[in-house]
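[Automated response] Your request has been received and processed.

Submitted sequence:
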Amino acid sequence: MIDDLRALAIFAKVAEAGSFSAAGRALRLSTSVVSHHVRALETRHGVTLLHRSTRALSLTSEGQSLLVSARRMVEAAEEGFDAIADISAEPAGALRLTAPAFLKNSPQEAAIWQFARRYPQVAVTLNSSDEQINLVAEGYDLAIRLGAMAGSTLRSRKIGTFERYLVAAPTYLETIEKPMIPQDLVRCDFVLLDMLPDKFVLTRGTEEVVVHPEQSRVLVNSISGARSAVLAGLGLQKLPLSEIGEDLAAGRLVRVLPEWSLPTLNIHAVWPASSRRSSLVKLLLDFILKAQTPA
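Generated structure:
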């Protein structure tokens, strides 16, 4: 029975994550160990739970039936652990977090480190990457993300706002006719980011203009890479104020069309609905929000 319970939990994670390797990363087990437990469960009960192929896994009818009970078992165990955590004098456990690299030194990141200091029995792992990570498949408990969460199956909570400026290096602006209105931007070079749409909106009072960059020969995959290319005089880009504040103060970058603004983005914390550490996640979220509230 004990072996079956462990194997059921692993099987539920495989079904959720979509592959043995993704489940292994989430559970911090090797792919071979995950596969062994699922296969042993099938052998003990004489059923096939998963259709295996080189492309993907899919559930058999028996697997679909068993998954319902496996999920109930896992949820019941998580509720029990949450209850223990709720009455514990000192929160304990582990949290795996991911946040955009350009949020370094942000109030949200500072609050995470304050949280780790406040609760020494909680281990915190923070992955800083501008790539959007699949939380379930990669085994993360919470992510910090920008913009709207419409259509997401993740739970979310607003934890702040994010300001950006359209900027360029003076050395670049010296080579072109200075843009005076948003329509002039079509003749400017842009440094593009592959994780963001090219078009953007500028506003001034009640005016709103959609800008479609038409010229670019530089494409990067991170905010730090975009900043570096803009500093090198290769074009314009809308960059986080937290990333370029010192550059603006030193004159290495300047705002383009400063009377026009980019919409403020919301910062959200997002987490899987079936998080095994919902109590710790809630505790962290409350801590982040409280840390940013003026006394």
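Summary generated for your ticket: The first strand starts at residue 50 and ends at 52. The CA atoms of residues 190 and 285 lie 36 Å apart.
If you did not submit this request, please reply to this message.
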